[in-house]
Design brief:
By secondary structure, the protein is mostly beta strands. It contains four helices and 19 strands.
């Protein structure tokens, strides 16, 4: 159906669950548009400077836990939705590149991986990695695994190469090189790990710009964000004073005391500032 309140075409399109299911099925069985059109919708081209791009023809092409995921969000009149679909891991065969990377990985000690684990930040709030070690391999914050092609060199599912830089045996940065790109490698600086005790971040935070207050509570399972008309949500630490809290949030300090945070995002120019308020009694979001 067309939402008459908006211009037709790129926005304001309303559908049903059944209609959305038919739309998704068309990617596997392209009855509408044909196979060529459906393939073009998922084709990603690098940017003019050769840097990586995950936006195809109206769809984001991402990676989730090592699998290819196709995604796009949408909103209208106070409603928000996000549609994600992708390949199923069941029955999937490893690619020749994955097999060769697996064989090469056995040449180097897995103990090296512990020196590489940690958060790395490019300076762009939508572009960072938090590497951990799982089952003898390097894994990022989305669960995607990286094939080992050198002692401190890895390759992701898209073919980009990640080369870790070490000083005195400690990783200080990682550089990503996109295949066939003429641009210089993108450097991610290693960030300090998050604090083990997060109770100092608890409190009420008020945004004068949005005229709203968020409550951050410390529980035995970690921090929880409470907002008016929303369920409580876990706050995930990324690195020191930086969290995933409805998007990236960076806390600031004065005399080593938390004074507030700035919510960051692709569409938030300069971010949105929240100031920590003195709290007497329970915190009530508004």
């Amino acid at each position: 159906m067309e939402n008459r309140g908006y211009a037709v075409g790129p926005g304001g399109i309303v559908t049903t669950v059944e209609g959305l299911a038919l739309w998704e099925r068309n990617f596997d069985d392209p009855r509408v548009g044909g196979a060529k059109v459906m393939a073009e919708m998922e084709t990603v081209e690098p940017l003019a400077d050769g840097s990586d791009n995950n936006y195809a023809a109206g769809l984001f092409i991402r990676s989730y836990r090592g699998l290819r995921a196709v995604e796009h969000d949408g909103g209208n009149g106070g409603f928000n939705a996000d549609k994600v679909f992708g390949a199923c891991a069941r029955g999937a065969e490893p690619s020749p590149g994955q097999v060769s990377a697996s064989a090469a990985a056995s040449k180097w000690p897995t103990t090296d991986l512990a020196t590489l684990a940690g958060p790395y930040f490019s300076g762009n709030w939508s572009d960072f990695h938090i590497f951990t070690v799982e089952s003898g391999g390097l894994v990022d914050e989305n669960g995607a695994r990286y094939g080992r092609i050198g002692r401190f060199e890895f390759k992701d599912a898209k073919g980009s190469t990640y080369r870790f830089l070490l000083e005195s045996g400690v990783a200080t940065a990682v550089e990503r090189q996109i295949p066939e790109s003429k641009a210089a490698p993108l450097r991610y600086a290693r960030m300090p790990p998050p604090q083990s005790d997060l109770r100092e971040f608890a409190g009420m935070y008020v945004s004068p710009e949005l005229v709203t207050a968020w409550c951050v509570e410390a529980t035995d399972k970690g921090l929880v964000l409470r907002r008016k008309r929303f369920e409580g949500e876990a706050v995930h630490p990324a690195w020191r004073d930086a969290f995933d809290m409805e998007g990236p949030a960076v806390f600031d300090r004065v005399d080593n005391q938390i004074t507030g945070f700035t919510a960051r995002g692709d569409r938030l120019s300069g971010g949105v500032r929240f100031v920590k308020e003195k709290l007497e009694g329970a915190c009530t979001p508004y």
